[in-house]
Amino acid sequence: MDLASGSAVRTSGTPRVWLLPAGLAVLVLVGVLLDPGPVFRVLRVLHSGVDYHPDSTHSFFLSGEQSIICARNSGLYAGALLAVVWAWATGRGRAIEFPQLRVAIVLAIFVLAMALDGFNSVAWDIGYATPYDPTNPLRLATGLLAGAAVGTYFLPVLNGLIWRSSLPSSALPGYRSLVGLTLVLAGYWAVVTLGLDVFALPVALTTAGASFVLFGGANLIFLLLLRRSENTMDRTRDLLRPGLICAAATVCELLALAWIVQRLMSAATMNKAGGG
User: Which of 150, 160, 194, 222 is deepest in the core (most CB within 10 A)?
Assistant: First the structure.
């Protein structure tokens, strides 16, 4: 503290905690741009525990790479993330209230649409007559809409436990904001369904980022409750340490789920072969 001026003075020895993660991010980005193939494979393995979906007919392809999870779940994850991003972009990132009834009804319709399309798809897969043939664009669309509903409700729950001072509003306070978010979802849907290969890596990273937000957010809720440190954070950078802990926990959880599912599928394959 400068006693003469009464203001804080930053010294040359002040640690810059952002330099290490920023440097690592640059190195990773360079490696990814040089050869993105391994990134797709790693992400696909990492998410195989939450969506073991070897059937390529339920996935979309960009730049020759299969989506890291199926089309519907890709939409579900991305929709949730885009809802959170939309809230922050529109100044309601710290909203702690659920949507009003008129918006909540529309979001409920979004979830219902995904459920109905999912039942139709399952019935079609097992050979029953269905009102229409399922398609990946429709799976992706209904997933995006339902994901937006999930993100809209997940954000205020998380905010209600993180911040000392939050925003007494909803992430989607009215139809205008809902329309704006829907347009963002439509843009994402168009990128995928039009097969714009240049967006192959961003789409994959969006899916992975969404899983980290959802799983990491759930871990953060558990961590805050365990440490009895709810409503103690004032700045976004206060989330750095607990966020890194929860991100590491998320990686471990995804890897554990992938290992368990792989073992179960291998055992099922061996039993089937033995029975035949």
Answer: 150
Distances (CA, A) of 45 to 78, 139, 256: 18, 22, 11
Domain residue spans in the chain? 69-262
* Reported pTM: 0.84
* Per-residue pLDDT tens over the stretch 163-220: 988 889 999 999 999 999 999 999 999 999 999 998 998 999 999 999 999 999 999 9
Mean pLDDT of 42-55: 83
pLDDT computed for residue 165 by the predictor: 87
User: Tokens representing 32?
Assistant: 């990814």
Nearest residue to 143 (alpha-carbon basis) of 85, 40, 69: 69
Strand pairing class (65-66; 167-170): unpaired
Q: What is the pLDDT of residue 167?
A: 83
- List own/partner pairs for 112-115 with CB under 8 A and 24 or more apart: 113/142, 113/145, 113/146, 114/72, 114/76, 114/142, 114/143, 114/145, 114/146, 115/146
User: And the tokens for 93?
Assistant: 């990132």
Burial code of 1-40, b = ≥16 C-beta within 10 A, e = fewer? eeeeeeeeeeeeeeeeeeeeeeeeeeeeeeeeeeebeebb
210-252 confidence digits (pLDDT tens): 999 999 999 999 999 998 888 989 888 888 889 899 999 999 9
**What is d(CA 230, CA 39) in angstroms, rounded to the nearest whole number?**
36
